[in-house]
From TrEMBL:
Residues 565-889 form the Disease resistance R13L4/SHOC-2-like LRR domain. The gene is LOC110745628. Residues 442-512 form the Disease resistance protein winged helix domain. GO terms for molecular function: ADP binding. This is Disease resistance protein At1g50180. It comes from Prunus avium (Cherry). One of its GO terms (biological process) is defense response to other organism. Residues 174-340 form the NB-ARC domain.
Length: 923
């Protein structure tokens, strides 16, 4: 992690604050000393990646890495503390140019001395580099540690695993694509480490049809070190089976000549080349010249990788297959084959006892085939139930490390899962390592909102925007890359198919926690576990995650040697947590270097956000969403570095001091206001320089706001809770929100001027309208990206309005909640062509509904809720073969009885896989 820390610190030092420091002649040489420290860190930067990878295996290297990391942090802290002192002496913005008057008020000699001490420490660490042999990098092949890692990854195709489970289907699918005439040039197997990619590839490689189809075969294991010429030579040698004379001839050829021969061989014969465990797009690029990718031949490539981008780069039209985790039955089948072979025949009672223990232990494997194999392989050598009990008691250590390093450890001679997953971590670029480690903040089984996560990364300084790229887009791409590298798993997708939530596989989370602890990245205080299990931090704490429960009266971390440098403080509270003492004055006084303060979810109680919040001038993210905050102090205006401010609360009235409170926040990108606040009818002013404002939620818009909104050209999300366009409608009509993706409006009458604003958003994909709808303009059909539409508390929709809705070209999700549809609703043939989810909720007048054949051909989920006058599910539902889920909720018993087997409407829904009927209304 030191590589990542140093890279981020160096990047930060090159930005605005250091530019300001260096620009002033009155700084007494401070700028020069900062430059000297930067130079020393840059010198060591090239060695840190290998040092990070080695530190788990070498205590001396671990100490050295920790020292470099702390020195980089010390330099960053010292400079930010200096900036804080300057800021406290004046009223101007922190980021404006310092004046000599205020510089005289701080101790330049002290700041210079502190930086000099840090520089000396860094220099000493640099001088000690030769003793660690870090110059022998993995590329030179001079490091036995990396050689061993390479050897451990080699898979031999002639050695076929004796125990395989749940691979038959995947084997057939892959074999079919490989032998298909005019099929894909590249067939890829993609997935996380330990998922069984190589095992599956071997099954395909030895498949009878595959063996008969191809003339010659080559299997090469690429791993993390790919030497293009040597790999191409190995492939060519295996394909043509050369004589000794030909071998010598090939050995004398250059890379381009080898590539040409390999190319021609694959054109002349049907060749199957397996590239096992290829990690990077660069590795593929170094091999690509040897493959006739732009010609149709009978030769094929079977590729295994942890990185989805590699498969995409190899062949954009290729076939990509992702093996799935084992389910419980499959896990047990694999486990039993390895660990319990023949046990049932010897002693049935022992077998049953072991089966009970084995079933419990398998829950920790979470369906990862390697974890199941590791566990089963260990237990296969343990005969007694007592030995199995010992493993059960320490199951996590056994699976992760392959052994329980306890007082009775004697060395089991086998390896666990962590080393294999760790290879994926080591291969990450420095910025992705930080993004991955940040996931250690979140509790186990926590479904992480992507929108929140990416904003946290930005606030921490992990994300930098280059050229015209927007930071939010770069941040999302980082998440996508972690998903593509199988480090993070997708939870839910949004209506636009973007990732909405994510989480970690349990074993990947174990790795994340291990690396976070190893690098002292975050310290977790967990009040939901016994006090004696709490760990004290190992050194200075930069980030704190606090897991509270209902028994905590108040918690504030102490300002001491370990906690004095906290940059990030995230609270996690249980549902309906009640406590108004957590955000205390002492917290806000002591931790003035905070960049992130996140306290959400305390629904009840009431308190004021302390005035001392204004001391946190380095704060980038402040979220008190659904917390008991009733008053926001005027001092919040001091938070000029703030990027994200979340004050949302659906349960409390929040007092905001005045409309100018946000006027100095030039860095503001996302602001979420409460749905109830005292600024209704008042004008909220945003900073003239806040050109990157992307999100405004729960704002009251009036005619006087027009000039402000004209400046907000980069808005992507806008939520309006009251709207008064005034008399000057032409100016409103001329506004075009070309970047707006999401718009929600809560307004009495949705018509005229408001529709003009909606239609001025050509890229909108999410629209929520709450209020009486007098019309649905045909112009909606020109919003070609609109995928999600919510209509709430609407008035009478007419038949011609439905015709507009069903012609929306990209609509995938439609919510109609509390309103009046026509009494007789007809969905026309060809209507709603891409709709996948439809929810009808509290539609009072809806009585009859008919779905013509060919309507809603893509519908997967249908919810009907509290539509009390609807007599039956629509005729024509039986034609929608894509329908997988039907939910009926709070509907009359007569309606529900028609859906049961033998009921009048059963024929309409008998093809639906899941029919859920709940909260039936009687009478």
């Amino acid at each position: 992690m030191a590589e990542a820390v140093v890279s981020i610190v160096l990047e930060g030092l090159s930005k605005l604050i250091i530019q300001e420091l260096k620009s002033l002649k009155s700084l007494g040489g401070v700028g020069g000393k900062v430059e000297s420290a930067q130079t020393q860190l840059q010198f060591m930067q090239g060695y840190l990646k290998d040092a990070d990878a080695r530190q788990g295996h070498n205590e001396a290297v671990r100490i050295w890495v920790a020292s470099v990391r702390d020195a980089a942090f010390d330099l960053e802290d010292t400079i930010e503390t200096f900036v804080l002192k300057v800021a406290s002496k004046r009223e101007a913005s922190v980021l404006t140019r310092f004046t000599g008057f205020f510089i005289k008020k701080v101790h330049l000699h002290q700041i210079g001395s502190d930086i000099q001490k840090i520089t000396t420490k860094i220099s000493q660490l640099s001088s000690s580099l030769p003793s660690y042999n870090l110059h022998q990098t993995r590329e030179s092949g001079g490091d036995t540690f990396f050689q061993r890692q390479q050897e451990r990854r080699i898979a031999y195709p002639h050695i076929v695993e004796p125990h395989v489970v749940a691979l038959a289907r995947g084997t057939e699918i892959l074999a079919t694509h490989l032998i298909k005439e005019l099929g894909p040039r590249v067939v890829s197997i993609w997935g996380m480490g330990g998922l069984g990619k190589t095992t599956l590839a071997k099954q395909v490689y030895h498949h009878g049809e595959v063996k008969r189809h191809f003339d010659c075969f080559a299997w090469v294991c690429i791993s993390q070190l790919c030497q293009g010429r040597e790999v191409l030579k190995e492939i060519l040698t295996k394909l043509i089976s050369p004589t000794n004379e030909q071998r010598q001839e090939i050995a004398d050829l250059g890379k381009d000549q080898i590539a040409e021969r390999l190319w021609n061989t694959q054109r002349e014969r049907k060749c199957l080349v397996v590239l096992d465990d290829i990690w990077t797009s660069d590795a593929w690029s170094s091999l690509q010249a040897g493959f006739p990718m732009n010609e149709e031949t009978g030769s094929r490539i079977l590729l295994t990788t942890r990185n989805k981008e590699v498969a995409w780069c190899a062949d954009k039209n290729g076939f990509l297959f992702e093996p799935q985790l084992l389910n419980d039955d499959e896990s047990w089948e694999l486990f039993e084959k390895i660990a319990m072979f023949g046990t049932e025949d010897t002693n049935h009672k022992i077998y049953e006892h072991k089966k009970e223990l084995g079933t419990k232990m398998l829950q920790h494997c979470k369906g990862l085939p390697l974890a199941v194999t590791v566990l089963a392989g260990l237990l296969a050598r343990k005969d007694t139930v007592d030995e199995w009990n010992t493993v059960h008691k320490n199951i996590d250590a056994y699976i992760r490390r392959g052994t329980y390093l306890g007082p009775d450890y004697k060395g089991e001679g086998y390896e666990g899962v962590s080393w294999l997953l760790e290879l994926s971590y080591d291969n990450l670029p420095y910025y992705l390592k930080l993004c991955f480690l940040y996931l250690a903040h979140f509790p186990e089984d926590y479904e992480i909102p992507v929108s929140t996560l990416t904003k946290l990364w930005m606030a921490e300084g992990f994300i930098s925007s280059v050229s015209v790229e927007v930071m939010e887009d770069v941040s999302y791409m980082c998440l996508s890359e972690l998903v593509g590298r199988c480090m993070v798993q997708v939870g839910k997708h949004g209506s636009s198919k973007k990732i909405k939530t994510c989480h970690l596989h349990d074993l990947m989370r174990d790795l994340c926690m291990l690396k976070a602890k190893e690098g002292n990245f975050v310290h977790i205080v967990n009040y939901s576990v016994a006090l004696e299990t709490k760990e004290t931090p190992n050194g200075r704490v930069r980030r704190l995650a606090i897991y509270l429960d209902q028994t905590v009266e108040a918690y504030c971390p102490r300002r001491d040697e370990n906690h004095g440098h906290v940059r990030s403080l995230l609270y996690f509270v249980p549902e309906y947590f009640v406590n108004s003492k957590v955000l205390s004055r002492s917290l806000l006084k002591n931790f003035t270097l905070l960049r992130v303060l996140k306290f959400e979810g305390a629904y009840n109680g009431e308190c004021k956000l302390p005035h001392e919040i204004g001391n946190l001038v380095h704060l980038r993210l402040l979220s008190v969403k659904n917390s008991p905050i009733s008053v926001v102090p005027s001092s919040i205006a001091n938070l000029v570095c703030l990027q994200t401010l979340d004050l949302r609360s659906a349960y409390a009235y929040i007092k905001i001091p005045n409309g100018n409170v946000f006027a100095k926040m030039e860095k503001l990108r996302h602001i979420y206001l409460p749905s109830l606040y005292n600024a209704r009818g008042k004008r909220l002013l945003f900073a003239a320089g806040a050109v990157n404002l992307h999100t405004i939620v729960n704002i009251c818009i009036q005619a006087s706001d027009l000039d402000d909104f004209v400046k907000l050209t980069n808005l992507r999300k806008l939520g309006v809770i009251t709207f008064d366009g005034g008399e000057n409608k032409e100016k409103w009509t001329n506004i075009i929100f070309k970047h707006l993706h999401s718009l929600s409006v809560d307004y009495g009458n949705i018509s005229g001027l408001l529709w003009n604003i909606v239609l001025s958003c050509p890229n909108i994909y999410k629209l929520q309208l709450e209020g009486r709808i007098r019309e649905l303009p045909e112009g909606l059909m020109f919003l070609t990206n609109l995928t999600k539409l919510s209509l709430r508390r609407f008035g009478n929709l007419k038949d011609d309005h439905i015709k507009v809705l069903e012609k929306l070209p990209s609509l995938r999700m439609l919510f109609a909640i509390i309103g009046n549809f026509p009494a007789s609703l007809i969905c026309s043939e060809g209507g709603f062509p891409f709709l996948k989810f439809l929810s009808l909720d509290c539609l009072e007048d809806l009585k009859e509904w008919k779905v013509e054949k060919g309507a809603m051909p893509s519908l997967c989920r249908l919810h009907i809720v509290h539509c009390l006058n609807l007599e039956e599910v629509p005729d024509g539902l039986q034609y929608i073969t894509t329908l997988k889920e039907l939910t009926i909720k709070r509907m009359p018993s007569e309606f529900c009885s028609r859906l049961g087997e033998g009921g009048e409407d059963f024929y309409k829904i008998q093809h639906v896989q899941s029919v859920i009927i709940t909260n039936i209304r009687s009478g």
